[in-house]
Amino acid sequence: MITSVCGLSMPLLRLAALWCVLAIPSVLTATQESLHPAPAADERATSPDIVVILADDFSVLDGTPWGGSGLQTPHLQDLADAGLVFDRAFVASPSCAPSRAALLTGLWPARNGVESNHRKPHGSLQKWPSFFQELGYETAAFGKVSHYGHTADYGFDHFAHDTFHDHGGIQAAVDFLRQRSGSSTRPFCLMVGSNWPHVPWPDASEWTGTDPLPLPAGSIETPQTQLWRRRYAAAVSRLDQDVGTIVSAVREYRPGAMIVFSSDHGAQWPFAKWNLYDAGLRTPLIVSWPGQIRPGRTAAMTSWIDLLPTLVEVAGGKAPDGIDGRSFLPVLLDRTHTHRDVLFASHVNDNRMNVYPMRAVRTDRWKYIRNLRPDAAFTTHIDLVAGRLGQRAFFAEWEAAAMHDPVAAATLQRYHQRPAEELYDLEADPDEQQNLAAEVTSAAVLQRLRQQLDGWLTATGDQLRLPVVPRLLKNPGDWGAAAAREGRD
User: Fold this and answer.
1) According to the CATH classification, is domain 45-340 in 3.40.1280.10?
2) What backbone torsions phi and psi does residue 140 show, to the nearest 5 degrees?
3) Mind listing the pLDDT tens digit for each residue in 34-88?
4) Are 268 and 55 in contact (CB under 8 A)?
5) β-pairing, 4-5 with 8-9?
């Protein structure tokens, strides 16, 4: 009988064997953790650096992560592959100043004071930088973050390059990141605004991709329309380069930072910018946070006013009281797949180029638009302005086509002349081409959405003000080809 091995008695050998069996899972676990380490438990986990990249006049369907519409955005796709892609994010207003003021205050336009383009929010309001400064963050804004020339009023610690098409903001942001590489222990919230693809667009020859390009819903196919679409595509490529530059710098200098990408509203194209259709309101949104956010997609409905409270919570604070935005941090952390059941939006005017007050409510399935001045003509820089800043060159071809083509004629009528109410079934008609407001079968839905919109108008104290005299349909010289003489470069 064997009573010992290497000098160890059998009872001791049994005890050693039992220890090995019990220890194996711990050893395996330690090995697995070394191969797939958990996020570091330092202050960056609760107070990460935050980088927000904003596009200017970029339609969601023109980004590769949402379809691309013949356009290629490889850098944006790279960010999408590493982050959470939102398929139903929306802005509060489809023009620059109101949309950006809503983002930077977390308030609906009627509550922050910016209902018309080019206006500034009430001076007494707490704004984006202050919320992060209270949490110990350094704040910076380079490029077009607020509307042109407004950034100084928001209180960022650093800002520069916020004038019209000043592209120096991209390099300034890279320099800011480089200067904080491995040296700064203070977290920062950096906002970077690209000027693309806002007009003026590059020459069409710069676009070397798909030709002819698919056109957005409601477009009329003409030679000039294709030429200007290629110019827009070239501008989108420049945006994508800006995104790639910033994302590359973040990954090199502050690799643990959260990156957010979005756009202030849709492109300067008929039925997009300055409109409450989804082409104007739906916005790209990607959020990437290495080790914290699982890459993928979400159908959660969010508004731009929700970004402020969400990122304040990411920074370790409490979502502010007294604002309209609601944090969607639980969506980012995969704790829920829903956020808002209903969204609202408004538009008033962009000087006198566009004077068309309207309000909207959107649910998962339905969109209701109330046009407050159906006696007015809808106009924009697109149909009124020639030269670099408008698309009069192709819109004139639309007008010529309408002289003999009933479809083109109907498109122009829909562009200029809006009914008092519009109702769309977004499941059956995602491009919002068939107005159901007069349909008996939609009466109950229409009434419910009317009530929801009325409740929102009351809650936000919306006075339905219109500070500019509209262009009336009864005055033909105010709109259409007769008014285009007002257009200038």
Assistant:
1) no
2) -150, 150
3) 332 333 333 335 799 999 999 999 999 999 999 878 999 999 999 999 999 999 9
4) no
5) antiparallel
Residue 159 phi, psi (nearest 5): -155, 155
Give start-end residues of each CATH 3.40.720.10 domain in the chain: 45-340
Would you mind telling me the total number of residues written for the chain in this entry? 489
Q: How far is CA 60 from CA 154, 185, 279, 282, 359, in A?
A: 27, 36, 8, 7, 21
Q: Report how far residue 286's alpha carbon sits from residue 293's, in angstroms, rounded to the nearest whole number.
A: 11
For 328-471, where are the alpha helices, taking DSSP H only? Answer: 329-332, 381-384, 392-402, 406-416, 443-460
Judged on CB neighbours under 10 Å (0-12, 13-18, 19+), 148 is middle
**Which CATH number among 3.30.1120.10, 3.40.50.300, 3.10.20.30, 3.20.20.70 corresponds to the domain 345-486?**
3.30.1120.10
Q: Give the pLDDT confidence of 281-333 residue by residue, as tens digits.
A: 999 999 999 999 999 999 999 999 999 999 999 999 999 999 999 999 999 99
Residue 322 token pair? 């007294």
| Sequential DSSP letters for 164-224 | TT-THHHHHHHHHHHHTTTT--S-EEEEEE--TTSSSPPPGGG--S-SSPPPPTT----HH
Where exactly does CATH 3.30.1120.10 map onto the chain?
Answer: 345-486
CA distance 143 to 165: 8
Contacts of 444 (CB under 8 A, 6+ apart): none
Angle at 291 between CA 300 and CA 91, to 5 degrees: 30
Give the three-class secondary structure for 86: strand
Longest dimension (CA), the chain: 115
Give strand pairing partners of 343.
362
CA atoms of 150 and 351, how far apart (whole Å): 17
Q: Quickly list DSSP for 326-345.
A: ---HHHHTTS-S---SEEEE
Global confidence as pTM:
0.90
